[in-house]
C-alpha cells in the first residue's frame, strides 16, 4: 500500500516537472517570474500589492497570478494597484501546480492602457515581471516547481522563529527568505538572531531580506533585487537566442 502511494506521488511530481519545464521554456525570453510562498497570512498579498504599485510607477509591465482554495479576494486586492491580476481557485488543493499556472496564461493578461507608462500589451511574454502568489501553506507548495526564476519564502515576525526548522523543505526549495511585518517585531517579541540562525541552519548562505510592506522599511532592497534580476534574465535570454 505504501509503495503504491509513493509510486502515484512520483508520477504526479514527474508530470509537474514536465509542465514546469514547458513553462520555463515558454517564458525564457519573457518576464522575470517570481513566486511567493509562505504560511497563510504571512503578508504575500500585501507585499505583492506594494511591489506591483512601485514597479508600475517606474513604468514596468507587471502582472500577478494568485492561488487560493476559495474566493478571488487576493486577485481583487492586487488588481486595485492597476496591474492585471488573476485568481486561480484550487478548491481543496493546497498548492499551485505548473498545469494550473499554464491553464491561466492563455490570452492573459489582456492588453491594457494606452501604451503609456504601466501599460501592458496582451500576453505574458510582453511583461517585465510576472508574480505568482502561491496558496498559503508551508508544506504542499514546496514540491511543485512552477517554472519560476526566483522563489521567495516569507517568514513573518508573528509566526515564530522556529518555522525554518519545522518546515525545512519550503526553505530549501526557495532562493530567498523575506522576513515580513518587521514593524511588528518589537510587539511580537521577535527574536531576530534566532530567526536568522534557524534560516542559516536549514539553508546555509540563504539570502535574507527584512521588510515591512506597511511601513515601507526594507522595500527598496527587495525592489532593487528584482530590478537587478530582471535585466540579468533578459541578457541571458538574448545570449541564448543569439545565432
Ligand atoms: N503590521 C503589518 N501587517 C501586515 C504586513 N503585511 C501584511 N500585514 C497584515 O497581515 C494580514 C495578512 O496579510 P496578507 O497580505 O493577506 O497575507 P497573505 O500571505 O497574502 O495571506 P494568504 O493569502 O491568506 O495566505 C493582513 O491583515 C495584513 O494587513 C506588514 O508589513 N505589517
Ligand atoms: Mg494572499
In short:
This protein is 41% helix and 16% strand. It has helices spanning 2-26, 44-57, 73-79, 98-103, 163-166, 168-172, 185-188, 192-202, 219-241; strands spanning 32-37, 62-68, 85-89, 129-133, 150-156, 176-180, 207-210. The chain has a 7-stranded parallel beta sheet, covered by helices on one side.
User: What Rg do the Cα atoms give?
Assistant: 18 Å
Can you tell me the overall shape?
globular
The helix fraction, in percent, is: 40-55%
Number of strands: 7
Oligomer status: single chain
For the biggest β-sheet, the strand order reads 3-2-4-1-5-6-7
- Distance N to C terminus: 52 Å
Chain-averaged pLDDT: 92
Low-confidence stretches: none
Label the structural class: alpha/beta
**Beta-strand proportion:** 15-25%
Order of helices and strands: HEHEHEHEEHHEHHEH
Amino acid at each position: 500500500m505504501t509503495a503504491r502511494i509513493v509510486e502515484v506521488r512520483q508520477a504526479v511530481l514527474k508530470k509537474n516537472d514536465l509542465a514546469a519545464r514547458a513553462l520555463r521554456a515558454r517564458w525564457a525570453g519573457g518576464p522575470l517570474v517570481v513566486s511567493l510562498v509562505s504560511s497563510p497570512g504571512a503578508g504575500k498579498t500585501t507585499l505583492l500589492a506594494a511591489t506591483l504599485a512601485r514597479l508600475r510607477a517606474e513604468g514596468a509591465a507587471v502582472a500577478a497570478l494568485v492561488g487560493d482554495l476559495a474566493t478571488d479576494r487576493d486577485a481583487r486586492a492586487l488588481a486595485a494597484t492597476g496591474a492585471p491580476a488573476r485568481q486561480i481557485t484550487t478548491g481543496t488543493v493546497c498548492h499551485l501546480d505548473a498545469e494550473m499556472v499554464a491553464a491561466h496564461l492563455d490570452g492573459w493578461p489582456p492588453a491594457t492602457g494606452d501604451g503609456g507608462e504601466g501599460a501592458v500589451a496582451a500576453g505574458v511574454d510582453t511583461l517585465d515581471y510576472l508574480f505568482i502568489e502561491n496558496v498559503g501553506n508551508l508544506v504542499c507548495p514546496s514540491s511543485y516547481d512552477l517554472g519560476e526564476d526566483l522563489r521567495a519564502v516569507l517568514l513573518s515576525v508573528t509566526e515564530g522563529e522556529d518555522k525554518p526548522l519545522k518546515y525545512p523543505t519550503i526553505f530549501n526549495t526557495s532562493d530567498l527568505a523575506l522576513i515580513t511585518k518587521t514593524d511588528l517585531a518589537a510587539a511580537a517579541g521577535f527574536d531576530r538572531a534566532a530567526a536568522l540562525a534557524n534560516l542559516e541552519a536549514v539553508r546555509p548562505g540563504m539570502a535574507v531580506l527584512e521588510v515591512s510592506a506597511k511601513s515601507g522599511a526594507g522595500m527598496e532592497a527587495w525592489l532593487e533585487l528584482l530590478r537587478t534580476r530582471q535585466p540579468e534574465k533578459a541578457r541571458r535570454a538574448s545570449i541564448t537566442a543569439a545565432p
